[in-house]
Structure formats: structure tokens, C-alpha cells
Amino acid sequence: MISNRSMTTKKLVIDAFLCALLFISQVSLSWLPNVELVSLFLILYTLVFGRHVWIILYVFVLLEGLFWGIGIWWLSYLYVWAIIPAAIFLLYKKNCPSSFSAALLSGTFGMLFGLFSSLPTILTGGLYAAFVWWTAGIPFDILHGMGNFTVSLILFKPLYQLLVRLKQHQS
Amino acid sequence: MNQFKRLSPFLGGCTAIAVLALLLVIYTLTRPVPMAGTKNITVDVVYEDGSTDHYQLKTEEQFLLGALRTIPGITLEGTTTEELGLMVTEINGRQADYKKGGAYWALLCDGEPCSYGVSQQAIKDGEHYTFQYTPADGKGGGT
Fold first, then answer.
1. What whole-number distance in Å separates Cα of residue B17 and Cα of residue A19?
2. pTM above 0.90, yes or no
3. CA distance linking residue B19 with residue B52, whole number of Å
4. Which of B2, B70, B98, B137 is deepest in the core (most CB within 10 A)?
5. What pLDDT score was predicted for residue A115?
6. What is the fold, at CATH topology level, of the domain defined by B39-135?
7. H or E element: which one contains B30?
8. Which pairing describes strands B76-81 and B94-95: parallel, antiparallel, or unpaired?
9. DSSP letters spanning B1-28
10. How far is A24 from chain B (nearest CA, A)?
11. Do A108 and B82 touch (CB under 8 A)?
């Protein structure tokens, strides 16, 4: 009876664990400018755990706001990170991408992160302010993209295998 | 579907390269270009109570922070990050720290908000810069 329910205790605990992993990875790497594992984890969570990624993602976003303090940047977190699961659902519905494809997706997302994040600045400072804010950060967006690409290329496969084993253990 | 799977890394690679090229072009066209030679600039600091300190200088420096460092009568304190440079929180002993009091030093170029922070703002001959004490509600010092 319990196993038929959409959210069992076991699933809930695993979601909480995955969310904690996401949050800890972000906080522990925050001292390194534009190097993060969040993009890679979101790709992996979407591929392995499907729709559960939305719960994990929005609890993570809430934790980020509580930990760092809610500001303009936090508004962008409400939609920026969601682009990754949406892209994975759209591009790789049933198939697992190669490490290289995942790295390309993650790298491209990193390069466009500043552009996506600049949208709330339109509300506070206008279109020109948002444009200036974005263009001033382009060198860091490129570094973000390169970091994402490298990290995903190296860690995608081993982490994917680990998470698949976790999922199998769950069911 | 197999064809799509085979094409996907190629298309992904093309997209990534196109995005990178576009970013490089946009950055090259919009980045602050410093001006060589001597420049005459003026700097105002408008405090919370509306009082103002005025500085006029002739400088060879290319960025505003470098020019400000050459003025003996002005002291700037703040936090420095790799991405944004110096984030000014104190000028001449007067604090405007967003984290503490919800106020900040707005940097204006000829009366309009500057495009960059004090470390990255390229200076131009004849330009007038203002550090304006600005509470979180957006109203400047003395208003």
C-alpha cells in the first residue's frame, strides 16, 4: 500500500539528501568564483530522478535565500536553475546524454548564466542597467562556462552511475 | 531518434561555440576603454547630511580608483572582490554599508549612475564623478 504512494518516506529522505548535497556543494565552493557543481547535479538529478528534481531544486532555492539572504539575485534563482531540468526534459526525454553532451549543455548554461540572471535588474534599473550589468560580467560568465564544461566532462559518468545505483537501491 | 542522438554533440558544440563567440564580440564592443594621457576630472562626495567635499585633479590614471588613490585628502574603505573590484563602504570615515545600515555609496558619472564600479570605471577628460550617500529607499544624501 505504502509503496504505491507517489511520495514514500524513503523517496522523501533521498530527495532531502540530494537537496542537502546540492546545497553543500554550492556553499562549499562559493569561495571559488564561478565554479559550481549545481548545474551538473541538476542535470544528473533530472536524468535519474525525473520530476523529483523540481522538489529538490525549489527546496535548494529556498535554502539559498535563507542562508545568503533574500535579495534581487534570489528572484533570478527562481527561474534560472529551472532552465537546466527543462532543457534536459526537452532534449533527453528518454536517453542519457554522453559526458560530452552533458558538458556542452552545462558549459553553455554557465556562459548564459549572467544573461539569464540580469532579468530582475530590468525591473530595478531598467533595460540599459541590466545590459551593462550583464556585459560587465561576461568574462566571468565565460569562466563559469569553462568551469562547468570541465567539471561535467570529468564527473558526469561516475556520478551518474552512483546516482543510478542509489535509485535502484531506493526501489 | 538515433540520428538526433548522433547529431546532438555536434549541434551542442556548434551552439556552445556560437554563444562563446557572441559573448566575446559583445564584450569587446562594450568593455570600458581607458583613455591615455592627462585628464582633468572633478569628484564630489555628498554625505548623509547633504554636506559635500569637492576635489579637482589632473591625472594620468586610467581608472577612477587609481585617480582617487592619488588625492591625499580622501580615504576610501571597503571590500574587494575579484569580480567587482572595490565595493566602497566608507569615505573619509563616513560609512554607508548596505549590510549594516541599508545605505550605500552610489557612484554617478556626470549625474547619471556609472556603468561600472570604482575599480573598473574608465575615466574621461572633463568628467564629473559623485559619490552620493544613498539610503535603501533610494533618496540621496541631504534630500
1. 32
2. no
3. 46
4. B98
5. 96
6. Ferric Hydroxamate Uptake Protein; Chain A, domain 1 (2.170.130)
7. helix B2-30
8. unpaired
9. -HHHHHHHHHHHHHHHHHHHHHHHHHHH
10. 22
11. no
Q: What angle do CA A19, A23, A27 make, to 5 degrees?
A: 170
Residue A1, pLDDT > 50, answer no
Instruction: Count Cβ atoms within 10 A of the Cβ of residue B32 and give its class: 0-12 exposed, 13-18 middle, 19 or more buried.
Output: middle
Cβ contacts from A onto B, under 8 A: 56
Show the CA angle centred on residue A29, arms to residues B23 and A86, nearest 5°: 55
What band does A4 get if pLDDT is binned at 50, 70 and 90? low
Q: Contact B24/A112, CB-based, under 8 Å?
A: no
Nearest to A108 among B15, B24, B116 (CB): B15
A chain contacts of residue B113, beta-carbon cutoff 8 Å? 125, 129
- How confident is the model over A24-76, as pLDDT tens digits? 999 999 888 788 999 999 999 999 999 999 999 999 999 999 998 888 889 99
Burial class of residue A91 (count of CB atoms within 10 Å of its CB; 0-12, 13-18, 19+): middle
CA B53, B89, B136, B32 torsion-angle sign: positive
Instruction: Answer whether A112 sits within 8 Å of B19, measured CB to CB.
Output: yes
d(CA A104, CA A144): 12
Residue of A106, A135, A142 best to disrupt the B interface, most CBs of B under 10 A: A135
Nearest CB to A142; choose among B5, B8, B20: B20
A contact test, residue of B1, B87, B115 with most A CBs within 10 A: B115
Domain ranges of chain A: 2-170
pLDDT, tens digit, for every residue of B42-63?
Answer: 999 999 999 999 999 999 999 9
Query: How near does any CA of chain B get to the CA of A77, in Å?
Result: 19
Helix H or strand E encompassing A107: helix A99-117
ipTM value for the complex: 0.85
Query: Architecture of A2-170 per CATH?
Result: Orthogonal Bundle (1.10)
